[in-house]
Amino acid sequence: MPQPAQGGTLIELDRASAIRDGARVLSDISLCIRLGQHTVVLGPNGCGKSSFVKLIDRTLYPLARPEGPPPVRLFGQARWNVTDLRARLGLVSADLHADLNRLKGLDVEDAVVSGFWGTHGIPAHLRVTPGMLARARQTLDLMGVAHLRHRNLASLSAGEARRALIARALVHRPQALLLDEPSTGLDIAARCRLLELLREVIREGVTLVLVTHHLEEVLPETCQAILLREGRLFAQGRPDTVLTSDTLSALYGLPLRMVRQADGYRHLLPVVE
Asked: 223 partner at 20 to 30 Å CA-CA among 16, 41, 176, 203?
């Protein structure tokens, strides 16, 4: 099992709670993810995974409390300029994909370049430098979609679009990458290709935080597993101690058996009586 690289704190929650649309979606969550500690966040639908992502992305704010440490710290800091944060933490989510798809005529290269500023498209007052274009093409090549750079983003398949958006998230050389269910809508071949590309991202030295509900997407390089249920922290620890048949059965509320393959990937099977 890989060991976390020595480094500072990436994400730290201290009894963090949040409310969205009048409902409490996260309750008293405390956890820590360090740089170099590749982490998977797992749980059933409605467990709070997407709310966790929004909390980190600053589109959802934690409930304030009168005293004590800040409930959310990123890279050791409680206060961030969103633009500066996105230069250190790349993000890919379904919301981002939908927002960019709504921009008519946005081609893949411009979508990736817009990652330098965290904008949706390239505002007219901003100048794209040759260095930016070169970096955009480099990350598109890393993701295997450089040949699509002049295509309309909205015309891509789900798998192609996910790879283009990961290229966008990597364009400013962030220290970490946060992915919210990146395989949604992908067929088996596209998902396998995506997982191999994520392993390449890890080899490039980027810390990966993967939010998913598919156990088979937990990469062999994963150092930590965080399980959420009903907006609360259910379990946290090394994958070998957390991703067990008993714990996952309790998490999902039905008998399950975890099987680990020779290649390091895990699969979850229902127990047939």
From this structure: 16
